[in-house]
Amino acid sequence: MPQEKKSRVHIGVGGWTYEPWRGTFYPAGLVQRRELAYASNKLTSIEINGTYYGLQKPETFARWRDETPDGFVFSLKAPRIATNRRLLSSAGEIIDRFLMGVMELEDKLGVINWQFMPTKRFDPADFEDFLERLPKQVDGRALRHAVEVRHQSFQTPEFVALLRAHGVGVVVAADSHYPQIADVTAPFVYARIMGTKETERLGYSDAALDVWAQRVRAWASGGIAAGLQTVDNGPPDEIERDVFLYVISGHKVLNPAAAMALSDRVAGRNAPPRSPLTWIK
């Protein structure tokens, strides 16, 4: 009898080095070099943002891999020099150089987020050329790519169809002023929620956390998340998929609290915080 497919949900924050987290999220006195190890035992994933600003050495990725527990994954933002250019078709060399180091994460590599400037408009031909340059695997290891677009010209069925044809996800930008495209275009969902507030003990209200937990469950089970703007999502396909959700921006000091509270709601309040959440249909 074939094994039932499992979908995995990883919930985390952006980065792990943030001074206001010391004494709030991180225990007082924890040395900075131990912060990644601590955070990775409280969250199930972290989105690395520093890679957006420059290439990292392969040994840096290997060190991050070794400092984190089994089951933990990193997603990471691809370098802006690959996406912040007039012609995306010229990005091939930098894409290849970037991926050489990233592969040191091995099975702790989640999704690569290719983020575009708000001024970047949708050019179908050039964007398709860019997608074709994103390898589906390197050295036999499958890669997952998502694009984060921030111009309204991307809110078109042509863009959604293009992503589906290439199996590339679109980043769901939520609780923000950025255009929202919550269509499911890949075997996974990648969401960045940006609405934590200083006035809420956990960054989000209990009601808001409950809503996000329902959306995560819907995505993981192959359904459609309610209350989000889509372009051409179609009916639910009922295919289980992995979900990656990051609490980003907003009142950043509370983002770890929001991520942990959301993890508890998705898995059940007594779920251990250090293990990826898993459903079996």
How far from one another are the termini? 15 Å
Q: Number of helical runs?
A: 8
- Give me the secondary-structure category: alpha/beta
As an assembly, this protein is single chain
Shape, per Cα inertia axes: globular
For the largest sheet, list the strands in their spatial order: 1-2-3-4-7-8-9-10
Unreliable segments (pLDDT under 50, ≥5 consecutive)? 270-281
**Largest beta-sheet characterization:** 8 strands, parallel, barrel
Q: In percent, how helical is the residue content?
A: 25-40%
**β-sheet strand percentage:** 15-25%
Run of helices and strands = EHEHEHHEHEEEHEEHEHE
Q: Can you give the mean pLDDT?
A: 91
Rg estimate, integer Å: 18 Å
Q: Count the beta strands.
A: 11
Detail the topology: elements first, then pairings.
Blueprint: E1 6-14, H1 35-40, E2 45-48, H2 58-66, E3 73-77, H3 80-83, H4 92-102, E4 109-115, H5 124-132, E5 137-138, E6 141-142, E7 145-148, H6 157-166, E8 169-174, E9 188-193, H7 206-220, E10 242-247, H8 255-267, E11 277-280
Parallel strand pairs: 1-2, 1-10, 2-3, 3-4, 4-7, 7-8, 8-9, 9-10
Antiparallel strand pairs: 1-11, 5-6
Helix pairs in contact: 5-6, 7-8
